[in-house]
Design brief:
Length: about 500
């Protein structure tokens, strides 16, 4: 079945309108001259809480979520929902403990809060961890949208050209408008994301024989690659005695992974710090935690519905080797003109909504944690804003270079996804000590623990990957495929435990 997308005039009109709105928002925000870094990065903390909520949603959802989660629903079932239980707990924890602390300090970079406890060396180290992790992880999102662009163009655009176009488009409005432009473009992208996903699900259900009942019938008797039959709608499968450990594991990992992402990642927190109401900013985070379940359910349902569609129309998946391709394949080969353009704009907005906020947070961390303390002592706010704009461009160039590099190393893309496990676990642990304890611990004692843990887990992961690629079996393969989630859990607990032993007498 052909999967080359031919854009019609209606599709093109939708995409042109999307680009025009992005450019208009950037132009509007650029005319609100930013005189301070607080204004440039956080819009002087003037963003309405509803816009903040939408911006946070757009930041959390990437093109990989838009494509990967339906793939999970297609190939597996709804068990991924159970990790959302930990995510809900994490949002309550960060909203009640971390966010109020950052708001009281009125920080622009959250790593300034670490400096309050452990000094400037700790702030530099934590910010460096973030810069490394976020740059590589966000590059994967650029790779995702560039690959979609390459397919959509029917070969008219090379992968390299798609990367340049994507990064250039994001830089066009982020560099000009800063945090204000990002917040309002994210608002538009929020509606595109969920409007597109909802429209896609309705369209799929409409074209499956029997509609909802047909989907339930097929998915209730799904067949695994080994020939065994299972029920995709058996939500209580994980609550069986033999599966309770897996249920607990997913929920525990969800809590620590989300807590680390929300609480120690400038990318996530920056959206909330820009809100004009500190109390409602906390509500924005809580709303995301609660909304995460229906949002995940929506994207998983797209995948389950596509499984039913493929059952009735098996030619649809002919030659498909990667289940993550099932949703893009449906968009490219089945959807009508107009809806194709809307879906492509939705995927583009998913990529841009996460990549633009990543650029903003990377620029913030660099300016506040590196430029000001080391090279910009005594520099005026106007000069700092100029440096901030330049750093936007600098990180955009890094995105471009890494994206071109990762294209040739597809087998190592897993590293970008899991890098957070090596760095954010111990980073989150240091934030726990800084915010929730009054222990007297010197930076020169606790930072080696953070560095050492990252080096240890990265070494273990690389060895496990090597064993798996070599066709090995047993513990190391299991570590690579399933148990890698323990890296972030243990990292978040190891650093506070060591800090307790290393603390000085009161």
């Amino acid at each position: 079945m052909a999967t080359t997308l031919q854009l019609g005039w209606l599709d093109g009109s939708i995409l042109v309108a999307y680009v025009v709105v992005l450019a208009s928002i950037g132009w509007w925000a650029a005319h609100k001259t930013a005189k301070t870094t607080d204004d440039y990065f956080l819009a002087s903390r003037s963003i309405h809480w509803l816009v903040t909520t939408a911006s946070f949603f757009a930041t959390c959802i990437s093109a990989l979520t838009f494509v990967g989660t339906p793939g999970e629903g297609y190939s597996a079932d709804y068990r991924y929902l159970f990790s959302n239980l930990g995510d809900i707990a994490a949002t309550f924890f960060i909203a009640s403990v971390f966010l109020p602390h950052f708001q009281r300090l009125r920080v622009t970079s959250i790593y300034q809060a670490v400096a309050e406890r452990f000094g400037p060396e700790a702030r530099t180290a934590c910010s460096g961890y973030f810069l490394l992790t976020r740059t590589l992880a966000s590059t994967v999102r650029i790779v995702a949208i560039a690959k979609v662009l390459e397919v959509v163009s029917g070969g008219a655009l090379t992968y390299s050209g798609c990367v340049v176009i994507t990064v250039g488009a994001i830089l066009a409005y982020t560099t000009l408008g800063g945090g204000r432009a990002i917040a309002y473009t994210d608002l538009m992208q929020f509606f595109l994301l969920f409007g597109g996903a909802t429209a896609a699900l309705i369209y799929i259900v409409w074209h499956v024989p029997g509609g909802v009942s047909g989907i339930i019938e097929v998915a209730s008797h799904a067949v695994k690659p080994d020939g065994s039959v299972y029920n995709k709608f058996n939500f209580l499968e994980l609550l069986k005695p033999e599966n309770l450990w897996l249920f607990f594991y997913l929920a525990l990992w969800g809590f620590f992974n989300s807590s680390a992402s929300y609480g120690s990642d400038q990318d996530m927190m920056q959206r909330l710090l820009a809100c004009n109401d500190t109390r409602k900013a906390r509500w924005s985070l809580l709303i995301w935690g609660l909304a995460g379940v229906p949002i995940t359910f929506l994207f998983l349902s797209i995948g389950v519905s596509l499984y039913a569609y493929a059952h009735f129309f098996p030619q649809f998946i002919a030659g498909m080797t990667d289940t993550d391709h099932v949703f893009p394949r449906f968009i490219l080969s089945v959807m009508p003109h107009g809806l194709r353009g809307l879906m492509f704009a939705a995927i583009a907005s998913a990529a841009m909504g996460s990549a633009d906020s990543a650029l903003a947070s990377l620029s913030t961390a660099f300016t506040m944690d590196f430029y000001k303390p080391f090279w910009g002592k005594g520099a005026s706010e106007e000069q700092c804003v100029k440096v901030s704009r330049l750093s936007f461009v600098g990180f955009g160039v890094l995105f471009l270079i890494f994206a071109l590099f990762l294209r040739k190393l597809d087998s190592l893309l897993w590293l970008a996804f899991r890098l957070i496990a090596f760095t954010y676990g111990p980073l989150f642990g240091l934030f726990l000590v800084a915010i929730m304890t009054d222990w007297k611990v010197k930076a020169r004692k606790i930072l080696p623990v953070m560095f050492g843990y990252t080096l240890l887990t990265f070494s273990l992961a690389m060895f496990a990957w090597h064993v798996k690629m070599g066709g090995g079996t047993g513990f190391w393969v299991k570590l690579h495929t399933d148990w890698w989630r323990w890296y972030i859990i243990c990292g978040a607990l190891t650093v506070p435990a060591c800090a307790w032993f290393l603390r000085e007498p009161a």
